[in-house]
Amino acid sequence: MTIGERKSVAVEIPDSLPHSESTTAIEPALLQELKGFNSQEQLVLCELIKRTKRDRSVNGPVDELAVVVNGLRDFSTEDEWLFFLKLNEKIAPNLHKEFVGAKKIQLDTMFPTVAKSISEVINSRTSVRDFNGSALSLEKLSTLLRQSCGVRGTMFSYNRRDVALRNFPTAGGLQCTELYLVVNGVSDLLQGLYHYNPMQNCLELIEKGNFRWRVVNCCPNHEWLSEASVVIFIAPDISRLTWKYGTYRSYRLAHLETGVASQNLHLVATALGLGSCMVFGFDDERTDSLLGLDGRREFTTLVVAVGNKVDKGALLRKTTSRNDSISTD
Ligand SMILES: Cc1cc2nc3c(=O)[nH]c(=O)nc-3n(C[C@H](O)[C@H](O)[C@H](O)COP(=O)(O)O)c2cc1C
Fewer CB within 10 A of the terminal residue: the chain, N end or C end? Predict the structure, then answer.
């Protein structure tokens, strides 16, 4: 029987279930569930529970039944189980990029809470391309980055301590997504190209300077990007995924994860009353070259422009009042 198929006939469970550490006690409810499996399968299931208990020992009790049910759902053959067990022996690659030696700008840890409900945010969300060109406050930028893509905790995982948990779901918890920012206008921040370091909650200055037209050069027909306060480039590092998922699935996962992160940025920007728009209309080579990415292991998947919106109501009022004052005599 392959794991995943349930036998309808109950099998005698040996007095002591086969498992490598006698300290792994099996709860009665689970013992009942395990009756449908042969001893080899029971061994694998017990091993999974043991590992889960060990990995999560600091986070309270483990729901053994849930571990088995999820295990069965995730791995339908013994080969997959064995792959999983071997994987658990591996150590994940470094999951956090850092520009060592770069000037670091610490972001606020205390951010203003966003009082809007999720329905209000979703209902008011729209792509905004008309920015008034005014500077964004550093506080708002901090909130935007921290709430949408920041770190909410750490856990022991993949034989690594302090693997970050992020404010957006990440494929395998491996956080392939990196954010690069072109800052055109943020108060108390030099114009330039930055990297967001979520672990340290800081911006790392890669190169200072006016990047407005270099961004437009990367994104043909998107001149309006020059008025955005910040242009955020979302770029995965797929080497964090390939050791686990292989190249093809990693490539797909990288696009999915960066899409999820982008939507968080878009929604938090909306909640903060800012305008934002996703942009896929960029030239791959020019953009990756601007960011210093090799285009293979690390590459841009999406751009999110953020800025203060043009007050269209005020514009209209201004135009109307100007028209009112024109004499028709
Ligand atoms: C993956 C993706 C790529 C996009 N690329 C661009 C783009 O290159 N340029 C642009 O002006 N808008 C772009 N958009 C925004 C869409 O044009 C916009 O979402 C759509 O017109 C619907 O409008 P709404 O967002 O206001 O509902 C993109 C949106 C998504 C989700």
Answer: C
